[in-house]
Amino acid sequence: xxLKIYTKTGDDGDTGLxxxxxxxxxxxxxxxxxxxxxxxxxxxxxxxxxxxPRIDEVLAPVQRDLFALGAMLATxxxxxxxxxxxxxxxxxxxVAQLEQAIDDGEGELEPLKAFILPGGTAxxxxxxxxxxxxxxxxxxxxxxxxxTEVPQIVIVYLNRLSDLLFVLARVxxxxxxxxxxxx
Length: 183
Prior knowledge:
Helices cover 65% and strands 3% of the residues. By secondary structure, it is mainly alpha-helical.
């Protein structure tokens, strides 16, 4: 017997959560983990454009992190959320790794003296799109946090990730010899 991708359980506009329970598909929890899922897909797309090994090597574990964050956000039980964060190793140490990647990227760049317009190469443009989706995911998690306890590390991680995506976009342009257009 093969499993089918469709279950029909969501045909009335609700969805099941990890650990049980159902909520409407427009519930803030579903929005939050849906935004994280979209971010993961957009990062996957950015990785597939103009392969750049050092950039892509930084982003592969980020995708694993985002998969774990999405699962955690789909879990209404706070203790199970924390267990998933620990299992996924999303902690201050992981945030420090993102910060190190930001610092490494900035080491390749001229200091930023003005706002830059998103764009440049296909790789950089894809990373800029990922950055804006990351910010949207962060806002969705903050919205969820108003009514539901969400570990603060989730917001810290997404905030740092958006900074990393910005720096990686700049690095991609620099490595390709594309200039930045300032505002």
